[in-house]
Design goal:
Layout lengths: L1 H12 L27 H5 L20 E7 L6 E6 L5 E7 L4 E8 L3 E10 L8 H6 L4 E5 L7 E2 L2 E11 L4 E11 L3 E8 L3 E10 L5 E12 L1
Antiparallel strand pairs: 1-2, 1-12, 2-3, 3-4, 4-5, 5-6, 7-8, 8-9, 9-10, 10-11, 11-12
Amino acid sequence: MRKMNLFLCLVVAASVFSGCSKNSSTALDNSGSNNSGIITKETESKGIVSPTDIAMTDFFLPDGSKAHYLGEGNEFAELDIEVAHPFENYVIIYENNGGALVRYVYRIDHDEIFILDNQMTESKADFPSLNELDAMTPTGIYLKKPFTKGTAFGDWIIVDTDVTVETPYQTFDHAFVIEKQDKDVINRKYFVEGFGEVKRESIMTTDDGGEYIVTSTLKAVDQ
């Protein structure tokens, strides 16, 4: 039961992954060579990941993309997601963990990504109309600028920047990490500009003082 509760925390804490190319051989350059102008010595010294005006859409996969995430620690940590951009500034994600299909709806603003909806569904129903989306009231914030240590939104806070993350898809440099702490569980998400969320991690303190860890990490992308 505690393992299942941990997974539910992981699902609620996590939102949809994002922003990759078709395969590792054609993936965006994430070597830290600064071809995109994202990382500079000055901004690294200040702990800033994004000195330039990064588009918040870079934290979602392109329209029509699918991705698979390797799960460890729980049978429901393995994920398959599908991404749609039905209208400008709106993103809809269907996420299947093998036990439930969850639909996420987001609205993208200049400096924030708002969560509009997050609920289990029986099937991939028709998308809400633009009028319906415009009428939705945000239930939370998925991401917020600036991407610097200490930036907080809701129960989440950016706790680290310029992190290296190893996934089955590839090794990513210059990730930033957001964290949410509950009584017995720490939830983390790892983001890379141009790729979005590449890893989820939930760490639960067990009754004997040890740790029980559940992770979902990017393994494959199909556009």
